[in-house]
Design a protein that fits this description.
Length: 85
């Protein structure tokens, strides 16, 4: 029984190390500005801005390819918050 516990513990340790290495190797770099802009948007994902959702609008605003007042749902208050970002 002790052999089984040691074997499973070793397997768990090796698996966790492999998962950590793979997670670091395949990590996706996210622009922090995009996350901030997306957090300021209302999250309706309505498409009223002409983009498929709030995350795409946030990405375009952060890249300078869309205006800060592109969200019709958020209105002027959201546009002001995004302009500060």
């Amino acid at each position: 029984m002790l052999t089984a516990v040691i074997a499973l513990s070793a397997l768990a340790l090796v698996s966790s190390l492999l998962l950590a290495i793979v997670a670091r190797a395949f990590a996706v770099q996210v622009n922090p500005k995009v996350e901030e802009v997306e957090g300021a948007l209302p999250g309706a994902n309505c498409g009223g801005c002409g983009f498929p959702g709030c995350s795409e609008l946030a990405r375009r605003i952060a890249e300078g390819k869309a205006d800060v007042d592109s969200c019709p749902v958020g209105g002027e208050s959201v546009a002001r918050r995004i302009a500060v970002i």
